[in-house]
Amino acid sequence: MSTDWERIYEATWDDLVRFLDRKVWDEERARDLAQETFVRALANDSELDNPRGWLFTVAGNLARDEARATGRRRHHLKLMAGERRDDVEEPTGIEEMERTRQRESLRTALARLSERDRDVLLLWDAGLSYAEIAAETGLAPGAIGTTLGRARRRLVEVHEAETEGGDVARS
Amino acid sequence: MSHVAEGLLHAYLDGAVGPDEQLEWARAEAHLEVCGDCRRRLEQARELRTAAASLLAGGAPVMAPARPEFASLRAAADARRTTGETSGPDRSAGHWWRTPMKLAWAASLVMAVGAGWIGRQLMVEQGIDAPRVAAEQDAPVGRTAVQEGAALDDLRGDATPEEARARRDAAAAPTAAETAARFRVEAEPRPGGPPELEELQEKAEPRTDADPEADADAEAGADAIRMQEIAPLTAAAEAPSGARCYAASRAAAGDGREAKAGKPETLRLAPDGTATLQLDGRPMVGFWRRAEADSLHLRVTDGQQWRELALIEVASGARGDAELQAVDCP
Questions:
Q1: In Å, how far is B63's CA from the nearest CA of chain A?
Q2: Do A53 and A134 form a contact (C-beta atoms < 8 A)?
Q3: ipTM > 0.90 (yes/no)
Q4: Is pLDDT larger for residue A83 or for residue B128?
Q5: Alpha-carbon gap: B35 to the closest alpha carbon of chain A (Å)
Q6: Mind listing the pLDDT tens digit for each residue in A30-70?
Q7: Does B131 touch chain A if contact means CB atoms closer than 8 Å?
Q8: What dotted CATH number matches A1-71?
Q9: pTM as predicted
Q10: Are A140 and A119 in contact (CB under 8 A)?
Q11: pLDDT means per 10 residues in chain B (330 residues)?
């Protein structure tokens, strides 16, 4: 196998995890799925024309399956322990709150995009070229700029509307 | 020439004007020289591009978590090849979801024996998800021996396909006792770290209902967390947003046993990691995280004090009087 997976792994891991996290919205699961993606790649003997594109295709499929499985899963919880904590510094909470707020805000905005626009935007965000995105999505290479432009505009507009709405609701 | 197409402006800004579009772009450049509207549109597209990139970067972890060792992935892939589970983008191999569970174990092992797991150190310092990290960082013995052995076997690839599958099944559906055992180990004190669940161990109340498996477990380790006998939840309904909501049942409302530790009266787990709940009559907000594949950690505050709650997910059919019921999210 001539594909240098280790180099691809070094270069792609962070992007792949982020791409998956934007799909499953669970950082732990995103890392698990990224691992699964790479293990599949490594266990696959066949030569790939575009290893990076292959990774994102598999990751996208895994994320889609994950979303379906999550919808079906049943959760049962037991409280094991609960205790007061006095050693938590407030700024930590605030930073985490802010991070969580941004995450939720992005998630809401992305959910308002069409699936195709969202996919193109996330693939671009993951560092794929127009040619790679075209190969992934089946769009013509010349259509990627148009799709990205629309997706960016929509994302920003939805986010602005949400933010203004939130401010109104809070005041 | 007509005005420059929006898509071409974005392709230009992305450095992605293709060979086929060079001529079109040359014309566009000439047009931009003379068309103020298009120059403004180019600037707007530039701002849009920056704003979108900034939004997409929002909510990322403060520090990128460490990635698993490449060698461990290679080993897992080799092991899988020998068990004939190779699959490509067609994801023809079923039950893929069990595999990440195994990989999670494998990764934990690598982290435990490896040179350190500094990526999440910040979170350890902040106390976030600390029990899990502590186990990964300081305790190569932090997994039950059977599971550790199984993961190693899987990594080495010397498990038979049947064994490997059986272990994955076991890992995918741990019994409550297994979960308790795992949780207990994770709660072992971490030298120099923030005070963790060992405090909770002392304060948590003993179970009132005997569970043979859990008893055997408790005997195995004197410092076991005593699980409160709090009922399993019926199926949690997921809101369209992906949130899960629970509410205390009426039968449990008059039960004062849990007053010491605190028990959620209502609980909402949002997929983005935020938790809102009613605890001891007070509204609280905070965060929830997976401490393990099947256990959750809640850290919540009412604005004055913080509380930590540990919850485990158990298979359906577990015993116990219903205390929290799944409800539709409001």
A1: 11
A2: no
A3: no
A4: A83
A5: 20
A6: 888 999 999 999 988 778 888 888 999 999 999 888 776 65
A7: no
A8: 1.10.1740
A9: 0.50
A10: no
A11: 89 88 91 94 95 86 70 87 54 32 36 33 37 36 36 40 47 39 32 38 39 43 30 39 68 41 75 81 81 70 81 49 60
Whether domain A97-171 has CATH 1.10.10.10: yes
pLDDT in tens, B105-135: 333 333 333 333 332 333 333 344 433 433 3
Q: How far apart are the first and last CA of chain B?
A: 55
Provide the token pair at B91.
């994801």
Q: Do domains A1-71 and A97-171 have the same CATH topology?
A: no
Could you tell me if B43 lies within 8 Å of chain A, comparing CB atoms?
A: no
- Cβ B263–A79 below 8 Å, yes or no? yes
Distances in Å between the Cα of B67 and the Cα atoms of A59, B158, B289 are 16, 25, 19
Chain A environment of B233 (Cβ under 8 Å):
75-77
Whether the predicted pLDDT of A115 surpasses 60: yes
> Does the beta carbon of B235 lie under 8 angstroms from any beta carbon of chain A?
yes
The alpha-helical segments, DSSP class H, found in B268-330 are none
Domain ranges of chain A: 1-71, 97-171
What is the C-alpha to C-alpha distance for residues A112 and B290, in angstroms, rounded to an integer?
A: 27
Residue of B nearest to A11 (CA): B67
Residue of B nearest to A28 (CA): B290
The CA distance from B55 to B49, in Å, is: 10
**What pLDDT was estimated at residue B260?**
33
Q: Do A18 and B60 touch (CB under 8 A)?
A: yes
- Return the pLDDT at A48: 82
Task: From residue A11, give the alpha-carbon distance in Å to each of A48, A61, B53.
Answer: 17, 21, 19
Shortest distance, CA B115 to any CA of chain A (angstroms): 18
Domain spans in chain B, listed from the N-terminal domain onward:
6-57, 70-83+96-220, 244-327
- Amino acid identity of residue A131, one-letter, is A
